[in-house]
Design a protein that fits this description.
The structure is a homodimer.
Chain A: H1 4-20, H2 28-35, H3 39-51, E1 56-58, E2 64-66, H4 77-85, H5 88-91, H6 109-125, H7 128-136
Antiparallel strand pairs in A: 1-2
Helix pairs in contact in A: 1-2, 1-3, 1-4, 1-7
The first copy, chain A, binds a DNA duplex through residues 3-5, 27-29, 38-41, 43-44, 46-47, 50, 57-65.
Chain lengths: 144, 144
DNA sequence: TCAATTTCGGATAAAAAGGTCTTTATATCT
DNA sequence: AGATATAAAGACCTTTTTATCCGAAATTGA
């Protein structure tokens, strides 16, 4: 469904979001430890997220990553997926055809419309504040 | 969503299914031409499908691949996906956690339940006869 | 026997995932 | 203000996985 980069990207963003609720900034090391991901690889993904304007980064002592508290409810999970994996999971053909639309559909095209819609709706309506709340309450976890 | 192998596997099986309706057997070359896939790679995928009992193969002159007409309505798309990609798309954690269940869910676990169910239902209820019919009628295509 | 066709083992290529080291920015401490 | 330590950014390299290709062996109808 998602690439490894994207999985790490989502988990990293959620961890940053959770800490940002209390105005805490977290370092790369803290992040990869919290989400159990390779440090250097995570760094690269955070660069993408930073350039996409999803997270803010600060260099130097006490530096790290954070997200302005006021933006938490305005950022949704789809934005993260699109920033890292592009929109192929939302729009690409399930059978890999370069052309696949209503006029010339692959055998799965019609059957996947509602699945796609639901995936889209689910990720669009999940904003960082909501999802971080569940983490706060211990209802969900970022690593085993 | 699916690996390239799986995409080719589905398309190949559908093409074989379509021809098998009229008791036609098709060769590897015909298949990869019809679905626009690399010949040698397609051969390997057909071996998997053959071993999984989804398609039948015949060596020698006039050999090739086919599916017993009477089984067309009994084989569904999920079987193909599972044979090639395994069941990770149906059961694996969306964020890649090795442990992710109702008791200890990742932040996406609950949100993906219905998407998973729908994917499962869609692929399980799509049998080869149904899908091949749409191809016959020209309602869908296997290549652009 | 011969030609057609799948099977099978491995080789190669490309892409994704992960790692190392150097550079750059910046707080903090003399 | 300058030196220093800290932490991200960036360039490059290695490993692993996925995708693709090749050639020889096995099977079988004619």
């Amino acid at each position: 469904m998602f690439s490894k980069s994207c999985e790490y990207g989502i988990k990293a963003t959620l961890f940053i979001a959770q800490k940002s609720q209390w105005d805490e900034r977290v370092s790369l090391k803290e992040i990869s430890s919290a989400i159990d991901s390779p440090v250097a690889f995570t760094a690269k993904i955070l660069q993408i997220l930073s350039k996409a304007g999803i997270v803010d980064s600060t260099k130097g002592p006490n530096g790290g990553f954070d997200i302005d508290k006021s933006r938490l409810s305005k950022i949704n999970l789809k934005q993260i997926v699109v920033a890292i994996d592009g929109n192929s999971v939302f729009e690409g053909c399930a059978l890999g055809l370069s052309v696949c639309n209503e006029n010339e559909p692959c055998p799965l095209h019609g059957k996947f419309v509602s699945i796609r819609n639901q995936l889209n709706e689910t990720l669009t309506s999940s904003n960082l504040l909501n999802v971080a709340m569940d983490l706060n309450l211990g209802l969900t976890v970022l690593k085993h």
